[in-house]
Amino acid sequence: MIKLSKRLQMIADHVPSESRLADIGSDHALLPVYLVTQGKVPFAVAGEVNPGPFQAAVKQVQAAGLEQIIRVRKGDGLAVLEPEEVNVVTIAGMGGSLIASILASSTDKLRHVERLILQPNVAEDQVRRFLIDHHWLLIDEEIIEEDGKIYEILVAIRHPQADSLNAALYRPQVFGAITADYQLLMRMG
Q1: Which residue of 57, 105, 148, 173 has the lowest C-beta tally within 10 Å?
Q2: Interval 110-127: pLDDT, tens
Q3: Which three-class secondary structure state does DSSP give residue 178?
Q4: Each residue of 145-178: pLDDT tens digit?
Q5: Which residues of 106-118 are buried (b: 16+ CB within 10 A; e: fewer)?
Q6: pTM exceeds 0.85, yes or no
Q7: At what angle do helices 30-37 and 6-13 cross, to 10 degrees?
C-alpha cells in the first residue's frame, strides 16, 4: 500500500472520483498508483520526460500490477496525451514558469480537460497568469508546510463565467469588504 506525503495527499484529495487522470512529471507514479488502488480513478497516464524517473514510474506501476490501467509514457509535458484521453491534469513539484510553459505549449490537449491541479514550487504568479489568460477559474488553493518547505496547491476548472469571476477574485479589495461577486465565487467553491 502506497502512503503519500502530505503534499501529494492534498493533491490526491482534489482529484474527483471517476476522473481520467494525467499526472505530468509523475516521477515515481506514486499519485496515479495511489488513486487507482484507492478506486478513485479508473484510468491514468503517468508522464515523465527524464529517463530515471520514467523507469522508476514503470517499475512502480508494474510492481502494483496496474499496467492495463496506468499508462506510463515518456515525453515532454502534455505531448504524452492523446486527444480527449483525460479530464483532470496534475502537475506538481516544478517551477511555476515551467508549469505555465507546459500548459501553454499544448492548449489543444487541454480542450477536454475539466480540472487542473497544480503545485508550483516557485513562481506561482506565473501559473495564476496562465489560468487567467486561458479562462480557467481558480476554485481552491491551499498552502501546506512539509519538511520545512511551503507548498501551494492551485485547483482550477473550466467555467463559463471564468473571466468575470477571476476579475472579482483578483480585484483590489478594501480590507474587510467582500464584494457580491467574491461571495458568489466562495459559494461555488
Answers
A1: 148
A2: 999 999 999 999 999 999
A3: coil
A4: 998 999 999 999 988 888 888 888 777 765 555 5
A5: beebbeebbbbbb
A6: yes
A7: 50
